[in-house]
Write a structure and sequence with these properties.
Layout lengths: L11 E2 L4 E4 L5 E14 L5 E13 H10 L4
Antiparallel strand pairs: 1-3, 2-3, 3-4
């Protein structure tokens, strides 16, 4: 039995999506996505932590992403 993992990332694009094509002609799109969380540090001040994610899309989804996402 195969397992499936699902991840939902909500954030901001660090730059516009990059579209390229593989040697076989299939579309590949990459984005840099920043996600942030806020927390209180030991002194009670709010601190924002940002993590960067590199996400890659393939084929038709890559073409949709490059046409719909832009850097904020």
């Amino acid at each position: 039995m195969a397992s499936v993992n699902k991840v939902v990332l909500l954030g901001n694009c660090g730059k516009d999506p990059e579209l390229r094509y593989s040697q076989s002609g299939k579309a590949v799109c990459s984005i840099s996505l920043a996600t942030s969380t806020k927390r209180k540090d030991q002194s009670g001040q709010y601190v924002e932590d940002t993590q960067w994610h590199r996400v890659t899309f393939y084929e038709r989804l890559a073409e949709i992403v490059v046409n719909t996402l832009k850097k904020a």
